[in-house]
Design goal:
The chain has one helix and twelve strands, in the order βαβββββββββββ. The protein has one helix at 7-11; strands spanning 2-4, 25-30, 36-44, 47-55, 58-66, 69-77, 80-88, 91-99, 102-110, 113-121, 124-132, 135-140. Strands 1-2-4-6-8-10-12 form a seven-stranded mixed beta sheet, with no helix packed on it. The protein has a five-stranded parallel beta sheet with strand order 3-5-7-9-11. The protein is globular. The two termini are 28 Å apart.
Length: 141
Amino acid sequence: MKKLIAALAVLACGAGYAADLAPPELTIGKAAPTQGALLLQRGAGNVFAAEQAGRRNALAGAQDGLQNRASVEQFGSDNRASVQQEGQDNEAAIRQHGIGNRAEIDQIGNLNTARIDQFGQQGTARITQYGSGKTATLIQH
């Protein structure tokens, strides 16, 4: 898996970031050529890690703020994942193994934690968090 500090992500930071905060970090591992990923980052210290294996998996992500962390792991085929984070110190994780699963996490606020685990076929899951300090876990087999 190659580790990238995406130049686009750094440019998207706007006017800059505080000296004590790291620039956005992007890590994508794709084990097949038919995977898709679209990730946008703005702010400082945001981290997005993704790993996809199988066929026709896709993910979209956006982080706007400071110190947000997100990870997506998809194995199988035709899975879709989306993570949107706006605020500070949010954590989101999606793990999907199977066929045709859909997962979405939206976080607007600070210090929120969300996790979706789906195993099997045709699962659909969505977590939306507004405000601060919220925790949600959704597991489907």
